[in-house]
Structure formats: C-alpha cells, structure tokens
Specification:
By secondary structure, the protein is α/β, with parallel strands linked by helices. Helices cover 44% and strands 21% of the residues. The protein has helices spanning 39-43, 50-72, 91-108, 117-128, 168-178, 185-193, 218-234, 240-266, 281-293, 303-306, 311-322, and strands at residues 8-13, 18-25, 29-37, 81-87, 112-116, 136-141, 146-153, 156-162, 207-208, 211-215, 270-274, 297-299. A 5-stranded mixed β-sheet has the order 3-2-1-4-5, sandwiched between helices. A 5-stranded mixed β-sheet has the order 8-7-6-11-12, sandwiched between helices. The radius of gyration is 20 Å and the shape is globular.
C-alpha cells in the first residue's frame, strides 16, 4: 500500500439507464455525484429499451463527466485514476461508459480501473459509514442481481448464495406491471404497499430446496399472476395494495431469513445491504430490526447511493488503485461478468 494521501478517483457508471459520473476522495468522501436518469423515457415502454439507453448515454456522458468535475471543483489534471463499470449490465450502455473512460485515460495518461458493478454497490456502504471495514456480510439486491456475499477484504468476496432465476428487482418490476403500477416497479410497490395488508394473501417464499442461501423468485411471481387470474375468472375484486404488500412481505421475509442464517453460521458482527432494492423501506426496516435483535451492526447506504451511481464506482476503484490493480486499453464491456472475476 502506498502512503496515505488524497487520491481522487473519477468514477463513471452506465450499466443500465443512468448516466453517472462522480469524483471520490480516498474511497469515502464524495466531492460530486452526478446522475442523469432515463426513467421518464423508459417508463413509456414499461422497461429499459437497450438501444434507446445506449443512444442517451452517448448524448449525455461527456456532459455528465464535465458536471462532475465542475461540481467537485477539480480538473482532469487533479484526477489520479478513472474507475468505470465494465460489467455486468447491458452491453450497449456499458460500452459507452468504458469507451469514454478509456478515451479520457489515454488522452490524459491517467490510470484506468475496470470496476464490477456489484462490487460498486457493496462499496457504496463505505461512503456513508466511514468506520465500516471488512470482513462483513452483505446482501446485494438490485434489478438484475440477488447475492448474499461474504466480504473478506476490499475486492475479495465469497458468494454464499444467489438467485437461480429472477432477481428480486425483476420480480418487483414484473409484479408491478401485472397489477397495473407500471415501471419502475420497486418504488411503486413500496409506496402502495403502505396502504395494504401484508398478510392478506399468503404467497410462497423464494427458497431453493437443498440450498439454504440461494433464492428463487420466479415461482413467487407466478403465484401472484395465478392469484390475479383466479380473481378475474371468479369476478372477484382485486385489492392492489393488499397484493403489493403481501408480495413485498414474501420477498422481504426470505431475504431477511437467509441473511440472518448467514449471520449465525458465519458469526458476522457487521451486516450490510446494497443495490437498488436496498432502498425498499420494508426491507430496510426488517433487516435493521433483525440485526438489532442479534446485536449486529447494520449498515445501508442512503437511497440515492442504492440506485446506480458513479460514487460507488469511484469508491470501489480506490481500493483497487491502492492494490496496484490497473486496466489497459484492451478493457472491454462484459455483460455477464461474475462477482470476483476480472
């Protein structure tokens, strides 16, 4: 490790439908975190359209990087390295961010560091929790990923469990579409669930027989669809808040129960959540209460740092930078990149 000094990382994130850039100091202090969202555009289509997302990233990436530097009151001459998401994600959007980062790194002769998107989500916890250091357990729940992870050290992970089919976020989006809430499903289900009864309907939990830490949300999604179809066939009225709240409870219960089983087995003293679904109010409350009962320190980023952003990428890149990890000009987008791969 090199001596402790101010290391400024320019982070770039474009794995889905947010074009984001940030300047982060020493992996913990955020000088700027600019996010240009495309939610309004993709809401018209009921989900993210990759081709449209790619074009919007191309239009916005330079502007977002410039704003991030201006807000941080720095120039590229002050930047020590560039961290960029290179996977997993949508191939077109990823390529825009990777290409922009490579161009800047080459033009200014700045070190380039490719960052795993899930590693970025985990690292978001370091920004607001300055005292948090590995090892700890972490549940990563986002639109495309549900991972239960042992964070051994910075950049070193052991996957304890993951989803076998739909991720939790995908299930939220599909159920929200089925009950007429539209896109994005997670925030809308979270909001309407507050008006519903979470025990009104008994839906199955997304467990996998014989694999205590893995998840499966496809069956839960199908159970909700079957319930809706049965109500339509019988002419029964459907309470959207009750369906949303009952579905959400089923998801939250299995996420918490798997996590607490890992806490007991691995003797975690610290546990964190990360990813877009980690901003869900019911999950945050249930996980905090479960950790409190067990005397475990609980960590979660603010909602703005749960969604896709570049500050988390800058935080993750900092620890790679200090380990001497660098990417060269052959860095490419890898849409199906697994956690721990390089």
């Amino acid at each position: 490790m090199e001596e402790k000094r101010e290391i400024k990382i320019l982070g770039i994130e474009s794995s889905c439908d947010e074009t984001a850039a940030a300047v982060v100091v020493n992996g913990r202090e955020v000088l700027s975190n600019i996010i240009s969202s495309q939610i309004d555009i993709h809401t018209l289509y009921g989900g993210v359209v990759p081709e449209i997302a790619s074009r919007k990233h191309i239009e916005r990436v330079s502007q977002v990087v410039e704003r991030a530097l201006q807000t941080a009151q720095v120039t590229l001459d002050d930047i020590d390295a560039i961290g960029v998401t290179y996977g997993p994600g949508l191939i077109g959007p990823l390529l825009v961010g990777v290409s922009a980062a490579k161009a800047i790194a080459w033009a200014k002769d700045i070190p380039l560091i490719g960052v795993h998107h899930i590693e970025g989500h985990i690292s978001a916890n370091y920004i607001e929790n300055k005292e948090l250091e590995p090892p700890f357990g972490c549940l990563v729940v986002s639109g495309g990923h549900t991972h239960l992870v042992l964070v051994k050290d910075y950049g070193e992970y052991e996957i304890l469990g993951k989803t076998c089919d739909d991720a939790a976020g995908e299930a939220f989006d599909k159920v929200a579409r089925a009950i007429g809430l539209g896109y994005p499903g997670g925030p809308k289900i979270d909001k309407v669930s507050k008006e519903g009864n979470p025990i009104a309907i008994e839906f199955p939990q997304g467990k996998v027989r014989g694999s205590e830490y893995d998840f499966s949300f496809s069956g839960l999604k199908s159970a909700v669809l079957n319930y809706l179809n049965a109500c339509h066939m019988k002419g029964e009225e459907i309470s959207v808040p009750d369906v949303a709240a009952s579905f959400q409870k089923s998801v939250v219960d299995v996420l918490v129960s798997h996590s607490m089983r890992a806490v007991s087995e691995y003797h975690f003293k610290k546990f964190a959540i990360a990813g877009g679904v980690a901003s869900n109010s019911a999950l945050r409350a249930a996980m905090e209460e479960a950790c409190r009962k067990r005397g475990i320190r609980f960590y979660r980023p603010s909602p703005i740092l749960c969604t896709d952003n570049a500050a988390m990428i800058g935080a993750a890149a900092y620890y790679d930078y200090r380990k001497g990890i660098r990417s060269d000009n052959s860095l490419n987008a890898i849409p199906n990149l697994k956690l721990g791969e390089r």
